[in-house]
Specification:
Blueprint lengths: L4 H7 L14 H16 L3 H7 L4 H4 L11 E2 L17 E4 L9 E4 L1 H17 L9 E8 L8 H9 L5 E10 L4 E3 L1 H14 L3 E5 L1 H13 L12 E5 L12 H12 L6 E7 L2 E6 L6 E2 L5 E5 L13 E6 L10 E11 L12 E7 L8 H6 L6
Parallel strand pairs: 1-14, 4-5, 4-7, 7-8, 8-9
Antiparallel strand pairs: 2-3, 5-6, 9-10, 11-15, 12-13, 13-14, 14-15
Amino acid sequence: MNRFPHTDALCASAQPYDLNSLPQGLFERAMAEMTQFHCQHTPGYRPWLAANGLDDTALESLDNGSPLPPIPADYFKQHLLLSSTGHDALELTSSGTSGQHSRMRYDERSLTAAQGMVTAIFRHYGWDTPTTPCNYLLLSYEPQGISSLGTSHTDQFLCQYAPARRTVYALRRTGSGHEFDCFGVIRALQEFAEERLPVRIFGFPAFLWRVLQRMRDTRLADLQLAPESLVLFGGGWKKQVGDDIGKQPLYARIHQQLGIVLDRCRDGYGAVEHAVPYIECERHHFHVPVYARVHIRHPVDFSVQPYGKPGLLQFVSPYISSSPAHAVVMSDLATLHPAARCGCAQATDWFELHGRAGTGASRSCALAAAELMGSH
């Protein structure tokens, strides 16, 4: 018997940006279903809800999930929160060369649900091309044995949507760690241009910025990669010295130096604490897929903010059964906008990121990885 009929039906939706394709009230039923599961199977979760004024009656109707008290993502850096299905599940971690790491467990159904969302979004944008071989440039860590790094796991998973002819990693293993291979990446891009196969570039944008800058500094000729090439970033919009890389300047440089058109340069937002994929549309806005809801929380009183007001970014999604991360608030500041303010074909709300809240010592996995560039 399926313990999560509503949740699994929601996560299986093949139309990731069409709320009208969902049965009425499915999201709310799925949230109630998953919340009740964690009340029964995750130690400490029911008292957490009670301490925030939610009893069993309130849990029967969760509206859009906003009444649930979110768990801060940083809390997962200090505690491994598990339900009964999480004890023997796959463990993924946030990466970094120092500092604290989040540890998350994904049981098979949670991981399958998250991966199914990615598949639906790739098919929606026409990026699932099983008969078109590609060369891959992964701006992330070369695997060393079985990797638990969330970023490495994601990048390797994304390679399934087009057959891989060759795969090149920007962060090469050395035997005692990883180092950034700038000239190796440049050489691979030159070879890819000659081979004329589509190229898919996934990972941290700071590395590609460094590559393009080195190409310009050494006066290397601009390249023309195959027309169906695709760039999909995953966080890391800072250089090793800490200053931000502008998206539009980087996209323009990619178009100029690699020949990839702007609407095939996209950014993705995700975290090991929340595996629902948020992918930019062709207008470069993060639309919220039907599998989740986004709320913006006031950083002082945690009240839900209206459209256009910045605050802390909260995600709500019932997809995960191995950990009570179905309502989590990130350390990022963002603003939520209605779908109509975008102008693309996606009919769901979208959010605008403003950067990290606070100035504490915690660092993103991408920034920590970018520091490897400094000494090589």
